[in-house]
Each structure stands twice: as structure tokens, then as C-alpha cells.
Amino acid sequence: MTQRLLHLNVNGNGLAKPPLSWRRSNPPDWFLDFDAWEQLGRIAERGLLDAVFLADHLGETDFTKPWHAFDPFMLQTAIARVTSHIGVVSTLSATFYHPWDIARRAATLDLASGGRAAVNIVTSGDDTAAALYGRAPLPDRATRYARAEESLLAVRQLWDSWDPGAWVADPATGELVDEDLITTVDFDGEHVGLRARFQFPRSAQGRPVIVQAGASPLGIELAAQHADAVFCAANTIPTAQEFYRNLKARAAAHGRNPDELLVLPGLNVTLGGTEAEAKARRADLVGPAVVDDAELATLAAQLDVPVDLLSADRTLPWEFFDSDRWHPRSVGAATAVLSVARRDQLTVRQIIERRANAQNAFVGTPEQVAGEIETWFTERAADGFNINFDVFPSGLEQVADHLVPELQRRGIFRREYETHTLRGHYGLPVLDRAVPVAVGEVVGS
Predict the structure, then answer these.
(1) Which of 37, 93, 226, 437 has its CA 20 to 30 A from that of 256?
(2) What is the pLDDT of residue 373?
(3) Contact call for residues 236 and 339 (beta carbons, < 8 A)
(4) In 3D, which of 249, 231, 268, 200 has the Cα closest to residue 119?
(5) What integer pLDDT is reported at residue 65 of this predicted model?
(6) What is the torsion angle, in degrees rounded to the nearest 10, for the CA atoms of residue 226, residue 229, residue 232 and residue 235?
(7) What pLDDT shows up at residue 17?
(8) What is the 3-state secondary structure (H, E, C) of the chain?
(9) Whether residue 137 has a cis bond before it, omega within 30° of 0
């Protein structure tokens, strides 16, 4: 039996870091410099990480800093061209992008990287994002997921339309492609449609890895049918284990091998030579918490609760969250905070003072953090993590040079790359043939 090994990505987005981290980074505006992104890729590859992940956010946020200014596919192409092993994961919203665009962008990155690409398919729930495309308000959640389902079906048909033998490129015969081995895709859905002959032969990994990040019932069902990996939020082991079991069971119900669907929660990591040093570093980066109207409004938006239901020195209004009135835009992010608040019976003030976040935080020495990671891994709360480093580049260098060696010492992380594709790193099969999809009712219909 093949040994189960931990999977680690690095989340390169600035919004995933502590509030003051940009002021401690060198240089503070590194995220506007393509050379720095290439450096990020090299450091992550030095640490033998599975992939560099870039989220994307369309519309307004609580932050005015340009951390999502660049198109993630352009950044990832730059990273791919200066590395040779590490995967590159980019995000696209199926709410706004057409399946042809998704398939084309991902296939381009997959070929540019030599078979190391993944696309993270998300739905957009922010009306300010809709305004960017002249579409406001957004359709309801069910409609957005129905469109995402159709988009993934169409994208997979495009990627699978080339038989591996279709690419000939024989100068002697003058045959470039065998057109009999290329299928015309004719997809006519309720929300998206296309008729096309795809222009991309398969990459070394067969087709790009598919990532999904929804934690609602609709998101779980979409991931169980189509995703190779799920990026999620989890702050407690019991909550994470429940999500893990549910997702894997749904994948099995669709006839899939549940071991070929990875669960990778987000994780903030702060390291130090001693526990006290790590905690001091974290406190410096998080900064003082001020419980004022602005912070209450921010928490209310994060949890999708009316701000007038929050009182600083009282616990959360659980009757609201437990009722059918609660319809969060991001189920996973809100639930991750609520699980900690419920477990520890935190007041609103304590939630803000703790800087409770959708992304879990491990703070300590490499040995301590590795121990916590190992517990989550062995307890089947996760197959690995999307690591958010705290400061660039020192935080990522600490992960690569100190945390990874400790995980290797424990025998749960690779000591060298054994493959050149992201599918290989993730322990997934190369897909050189179309994989049938059992399609009943479209998700959300």
C-alpha cells in the first residue's frame, strides 16, 4: 500500500496574511513586482511544496490595497517559467467567465508549465463583482452553482476532446494532427453553451487539475462530482473531520475513489525559534484589536449577520445563525469562525480580540507547528494545507527551510520531487482519456 503523504500549497495572496504583514515585508510592495513573484515560486519549490495557489477576488473588499490587482494566470505563468516542478493553481469565477475562456486559460498554463497547472473554479456572491461586468444583482446561489456545474462539464469536454494520439507533428509525412482523433464539442446547457473544436493537445498530466472551494451543500456536491482537490476553511478538528467525511462520502456516491479528492484547508503559519518568539512575531503582525463600530461592521459582514444583532460583550446571536434566516455568502468562511466561537463560547469582543479568522492559525516553533499539522493529517481532518506565510520573503523561507525539514523527519512529507506534474505531486492519475461523468440533474436545478 502506498504511504499517505501530506500535501502543502503556499497561498501567495496578500489578503490571507495578518493585517500588518505588508509593512514588515521586504519590500513592502513586493506584490506589485513580478520578480518577487518569481522569487516566491523559487522559495516554495526549494521547500518541495506541491503548488503555489493564487486566489482572485472580483469586486470590493474591506481592503483598498492592490493585492488582487494582477490576473493570477499571468503571475502563475511567470512563476512556472522560472521553476521546474512546483504546481501553479489559479482562480476563475464561473459566474462571469465562459467555459471556453476557462478551458483556454487553464490549458495555456498547463502547457506553459509542462503539466503543472490547476484551475480553481469558484462562484461569485458579491454584487460589487457583478457591477464590474454590468450585471447586478447576481443570480441566486442555486443558479450560480447550476452555471458552474454546466461550465465544468463543458470545460472537461473541451479538455477531453483531444485523443492523446491526435498530436502527430511528423515532418516526414507532413501530418501535424490527426483530425479524426479530435472531437467537436457541442454543449447546449440552460446557462452556457458552445460549439467548438478545441485547439490544445493534452499536456504531460493529461488535463489541468480541477480545484473547488465551496463548502455549502451545493459546493460540496459540485466538488464531489468534479474536483481533484478542495480548498476549504476549518478551525477545529471535529468540524474539519465532519467536512472531510461528508465530502469523501459524496465522492464515493458518485462512483469516485475518495482518495483522489484531496481536502486542503487554509492555514496561517507563524514560526519562531521559541514559542514566545513566535507569539511575539504574531502579535506584532496582527496588531492591537480595537472593538469599535467599524470592527463590528467588519465582523457582521464576515458572518453575514445584521450588525445590530451584535453586542460587544455578549456571545453571538446563535438563534439567528441556527435559523433559516441565515444565508451566508461564504458558508465555509463563516462556519470556520462560528465553530471556534461556539466551542469556546466567545463574546463578540473576544472574537475580535483573538482576530478569529476563517483560516486557522498555528503559531510556535517548527516542531510545535509540525506536531499540530501531523495531528490534523493523521486524524483525517485534512490531506494537507494551503499555507499562508506571514511576511514575505522571511515567512515563506521559514516554512521551506525549517517547517518542511521537521515534517520530513516525521516521515509525512516528501524528501524530493518524484514527478514533474501537479497530478503526480497530488498522487492523482494522469488523465489521457475522457473520464465519464454521471450527469443527472444539474447541481442547483
Answers:
(1) 93
(2) 98
(3) yes
(4) 231
(5) 60
(6) 140
(7) 64
(8) CCCCCCEEEEECCHHHCCCCHHHHCCCCCHHHCHHHHHHHHHHHHHCCCCEEEECCCCCCCCCCCCCCCCCHHHHHHHHHHCCCCCEEEEEEECCCCCHHHHHHHHHHHHHHCCCCEEEEEECCCCHHHHHHCCCCCCCCHHHHHHHHHHHHHHHHHHHCCECHHHEEEECCCCEEECHHHECCEEEECCCCEEEECCCCCCCCCCCCEEEECCCCHHHHHHHHHHCCEEEECCCCHHHHHHHHHHHHHHHHHCCCCHHHCEEEEEEEEEECCCHHHHHHHHHHHHCCCCCCHHHHHHHHHHHCCCHHHCCCCCECCHHHHCCCCCCCCCHHHHHHHHHHHHHHCCEHHHHHHCCCCCCEEEEECHHHHHHHHHHHHHCCCCCEEEEECCCCCHHHHHHHHHHHHHHHHCCCCCCCCCCCCHHHHCCCCCCCCCCCCCCCCCCCC
(9) yes
The pTM score is 0.88
User: CA 12 to CA 55: how far, in whole Å?
Assistant: 8
Lowest mean pLDDT of 3-7, 232-236, 331-335, name the range.
331-335
Cell of 64: 483598498
User: What is the spatial distance between Cα 258 and Cα 118, in angstroms, rounded to a whole number?
Assistant: 19
* Max mean pLDDT range (51-65, 226-240, 342-356): 226-240
Instruction: Please give the average per-residue pLDDT across 211-231, as a whole number.
Output: 90
Grid cell listed for 396: 515563506
Tell me the mean pLDDT in the region 249-267.
Answer: 95
The answer to whether 411 and 373 are in contact (CB under 8 A) is no
Residue 190: pLDDT over 80 = yes
C-alpha grid cell for residue 204? 504531460
Q: Are 314 and 348 in contact (CB under 8 A)?
A: yes
Quick check: bond before 27 cis, omega within 30? yes
